[in-house]
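@channel anyone free to eyeball this complex?
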Amino acid sequence: MIAELGHFTLILALFMAVVQSSLPLIGAQRRHAAWMALAQPTAVLQFLLVAIAFLCLTHAFVTSDFSVVNVVKNSHTAKPLIYKISGVWGNHEGSLLLWVLILSIFGAAVAVFGGNLPPSLKARVLSVQAMIAVGFYLFMLLTSNPFERIHPPPFNGQGLNPLLQDPGLAFHPPMLYLGYVGFSMAFSFAIAALIEGRVDAAWARWVRPWTLAAWCFLTAGIALGSWWAYYELGWGGWWFWDPVENASFMPWLAGTALLHSATVVEKRDTLKGWTVLLAIITFSLSLLGTFLVRSGVLTSVHAFATDPARGVFILILLIIVIGGSLALFAWRGPQLTSTGLFQPISREGALLFNNLVMTTAAAAVLLGTLYPLLLDAVGGGKVSVGPPFFNAVFIPIMVPMIVAMAIGPFLNWKRGDLMPALSRLRVAFAVTVAAGLAAWSIYGDGPFLGVAALALAVWLGTGTLTELAGRVKLFRAPLDESLRRFRRMPRSAWGMTLGHLGLAIAIAGMAGAGAWTVESIQVMKPGDKVTVGGYVYAFEGAKNGKGPNYSLVHGTFQVSRNGEHVATLRPEKRVYDVSQQPTTEAAIHTTWRGDLYAVIGDPEGTDGAYVTRIYFNPLVVWMWVGTLVMVFGGALSLTDRRHRVGAPQRRTGAAAVAAGT
Amino acid sequence: MNKRLLFVLPLAVFLVLAVYFAIGLTKDPRKLPNMLAGKPVPAFALQPIKGRDDKGFASTDLPGRVSLVNIFGSWCVACQIEHPFLMQLAASGAVPIHGIDWREVDPDAGPDWLKKKGDPYELVGDDPRSKAAIAFGVTGAPETFVVDRQGVVRYKHVGPLNEEIWRDIVKPIIDKLRAEGAS
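replying in thread with the prediction:
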């Protein structure tokens, strides 16, 4: 009964979305206020209906209603409650329902809080949002109904893929989707602007917070996924350039570009067509990220479902949404006129450089991800594109950008001067050279790339701190004056500083983990010792045990360094009762120097010996800390007054004068 | 360049991609190419497994009859699922099945397994160092190759064989190969 209620509300939500996508749009074209106003109640109602549907599915999972196919396939009574709930979105159908739920939340948020938007823009934005929703509802109802029943119901379910029964992954998809779907707002604003034929500073000020929020969620989502891969897959790696990872990384790159170009539109009234195009591209890549890996066009180790009927539907949907919006862009885009002049050496010039690099990087990742597909389509056979390609292409693209990232914030809007900016970076440059040489002397035998990446991280970090110091007039004004400036710094400025600083920290982590990881695989008997990365691991043997829905073997290592005990590591190997699928639970001891990482494998022989894999992953924790700093910076910037105050108001004071009009 | 063209460019790029997606959808991503199809079986000569004191299994044993070569291992879970069907197939006498016992760490494990569960194979070779498996381009166990009278590999099935796959895919191929040879 409750499943039918969910199914029914989903159908109602579809009708609500159809109304929301048509009448307000027509109303906006004909300047019919009552029709435009329809956008708000329909958006809110649509949200309520999807929310009911989502609750119904959650209810089916929590109560283990095995008359629902989706629950049978993805749940089991012996599963802990949290994974019953995360099972709702741990599958194809349920994840789509989560997707539309988030989409409707964003839509309802615009309807409720968008009071200061011009009515026609608001009506059009909500209509475009609803169009996307219509596509998703149809996809679900026609090909992927989460509420399908089964008769007779089986006694128990097949269980959730054990790899997904993990706290890190329970929250990874919702984060990622908040990011993907958040970019739908930028998309809807872009399409609405194309229909209106107008992009101005007020528009950019509306787009930016949505993009920023989506970017924060996506960054956190990617980091969660990477963290999960790091501790759960037990390979000691954190990024594999897997199609699924790339699918989330491409919108991140494009979204980061959008974040920066929207600032240019806001401050300088230029780059309009480009920003609109970026908004379309970012959301298109998000759609691709949601769909591509599911449709059977691309397969990956952790694709959920491959079904040709769904694939055809997805392709049609992508062609309508992406093709349609790009056609609209081709038609209306040339009418978006810019007033600002453009100097290459200026803040906006630096931001444009960022945009070029980010989109090139996104294009390179797209090419690498799709290349196997393209080659296969022309009969070139099956290939897979692996990390060597991505590392060889991606890293050289990013290097000049990191170099420029430290310089950009020193340039003025309109017309910057390179020499004064560079001279202010003297200290940062000296620190970088010193740090590079120090790294070279310590790790001289390691790969050159690692040393170079560490130096880059130091350059970006010190450059960003120099900019912060200049902003608060550190050492040039009395200390209390600096402190006052420090406290009064706009939160959006903090966002930039923390965002860049976080990236610097993360790059240091990537450099360390990428270049100096030590790996050791061996068979160990109880009592055996092995030294990895300067740490001595003594194996004490392994015991069998039992978890809530799995049986396990856990080994014990006593780790010491220079004779001093450092940590006790207990890696596990689990075999889940229902699927008999084994998973590894790496034991990790984190220090700021690096992670001690141990995995236990299969037994070897009969004398209690096991295959063990032990890694020393230098600086890994810096990656997660850096990402957290970036997300925190984004969130802080989101709370800036500028985003809360109404659209047409201008900032007062010197900043506005400097920004020009 | 005409400025208008610049605005059309993204659409053009996307449409080209969409065509590729459409072609990509028609291909089954799970189907791996069989590099050996139409080529003679690679040369190999494997020792017998323990407990079977026959001559082992070599590529020279294959020509003359249409046969199946099945890659298995006692460690492989999917092989255990496949095994009852192989027993049934061998009992029906539809086609001779040869086995390659792949990557056994313990030389007794394979023979023990066959002793316990039954032995569907006419010839079995022991391949602990993956010599034959690599030559065959095996990506995982179980895999089954259809070899024709000339000792040429004609088809490869990845994953466990079952009634359905046998009836719909493998048997028709074997029937065709036998008809070819007869004419």
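from a first look: Chain B has one domain: 30-179.
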